[in-house]
Design brief:
alpha+beta; 8-stranded mixed beta sheet; 29% strand; single chain; 188 residues; 5 helices
Length: 188
């Protein structure tokens, strides 16, 4: 098992608390041979929950960098942390790079969710508006990044795969997509 200083977890926890307030719940995702992945739940407002990971930073070599992620959800709240935990566990186990532009298909794993929302993949990107708060440091030479996850439709996934993350990001910006709106219409 790869090991990284455990103060990454505290640094990211502190940053998430600064951004979203104190967590109201915690779920643990265990996978043999790996440290437990935590999904913390935050309630920054009455109509929004934030689900944030803790422990991905223990595996920068497997994920292609030092990252933790959060997912905002205004609907389908039971599904969101389960999907996030499962996707991140699979990405870690299969050594799938995480970073801006990374995605993972969810339609086969969560067919009821996909049918209800029209979303077939979980996409990761840089969070808009966080600027320097999206970078977490444990010392002068080591820094990690915070990513935001959002659910995307089959048409959006097809566009992403065909045109790449840069053009996809430009389309999302033009459409002013709210990452927390799981029931939004596809932009394509």
């Amino acid at each position: 098992m790869e090991e990284k200083e455990l103060n990454w977890g505290l640094a990211y926890f502190d940053r998430f608390v600064k951004l979203f307030g104190n967590p109201i719940n915690q779920q643990i995702w265990d996978k043999e041979g790996y440290a437990s992945l935590q999904i913390l739940t935050f309630a920054p407002s009455s109509d929004l929950l934030i689900f944030a990971s803790i422990a991905l930073t223990l595996y920068p070599a497997r994920l292609g960098g030092t990252y933790e992620v959060f997912l905002a959800a205004a609907d389908r709240l039971r599904d969101a942390p389960n999907i996030l935990g499962r996707v991140l566990t699979i990405m870690l186990e299969k050594t799938i790079s995480l970073g801006p532009g990374a995605f993972y298909p969810i339609e086969k794993m969560f067919p009821d969710f996909s049918a209800a929302t029209g979303k077939t993949a979980l996409y990761f990107t840089d969070p808009a508006g966080l600027d320097e708060l999206a970078t977490v440091r444990i010392n002068e030479s080591e820094q990690g990044k915070i990513l935001v996850g959002m659910f995307i439709s089959a048409a959006e996934l097809a566009f992403l795969e065909e045109n790449g993350a840069t053009k996809f990001e430009e389309a999302l910006t033009r459409a002013r997509v709210d990452p927390a709106d799981m029931n939004r219409k596809s932009i394509f």
